Known about the structure:
- This protein has helices spanning about 10-25, 35-45, 60-70, 85-95, 110-120, 155-165, 175-185, 190-210, and strands at about 5-10, 30, 50-55, 75-85, 100-105, 130-135, 135-140, 145, 150, 170-175, 215-220, 225.
- The protein has about 230 residues and is of the alpha/beta class.
- The radius of gyration is 18 Å and the shape is elongated.
- The chain folds into two domains: about 5-120, Response regulator (Rossmann fold), CATH 3.40.50; about 130-225, Arc Repressor Mutant, subunit A (Orthogonal Bundle), CATH 1.10.10.10.
- It is built from eight helices and twelve strands.
- The strands form three sheets. Strands 2-1-3-4-5 form a five-stranded parallel sheet, with helices on both faces. A four-stranded antiparallel sheet has the order 6-7-8-9.
Amino acid sequence: MSKKILVVEDDKPIRELVVFHAAKEGYAVQAVADGRQAVDLLDREQFDLVILDLMLPELDGIEVCKHIRNRFGYSVYVLMLTAKGEEVDRIIGLEMGADDYVVKPFSPRELMVRVKAAFRRSLPQQAVATLTAGGVTLDRERHEVTYNKKHLELTPKQFALLAHMMNNKGKVCSREELLEAVWGFDFYGDTRTVDVHISQLRHQLQQAAGEGKIPIETLRGVGYRFRGDN
């Protein structure tokens, strides 16, 4: 069965361009022009991925993204479209639950690469189903993480980032490496998206740790390292 994609874009030429290329790739595609229509359609039909413009009439992309997360959790992948120069809004979008973003103007090829990567987001089968280090236990089969005996509610991206760093504990992982390992493609934009997701992951770990140190450390200008000896 084809993956279902909803395109939410008020600019008609862009909307039609995205629909054309998504359909060409074999996806089942529907499109709407504003946030209110998107919410109404999402409440009636099930989609695997939403390509969501940030600036929309009626309801903006942030509100639509929040609706998706509140109603469907992280079972629906949200790929946000933002205009060049909207970095603050883009970061807010990631913090509100968007999985990834593409900056306009973008090439249809880049967008389809992102979509394909999204549908490959599940972790590959590993010999070790459960990772334990630094007080963290990560269960791939159950998609569960505990730290300091507390359950963490992680997004798929946060889960994948943590798994990759735990697999490489003690090693410094660059932002570029994390992008390729977790997003599964050569990234076209900046690496801020990694920083935002790592920040959210660190926040959850810190809440579970209380006053204690957490096992993920930041090396400025280099990347991140999981310290399994904490």
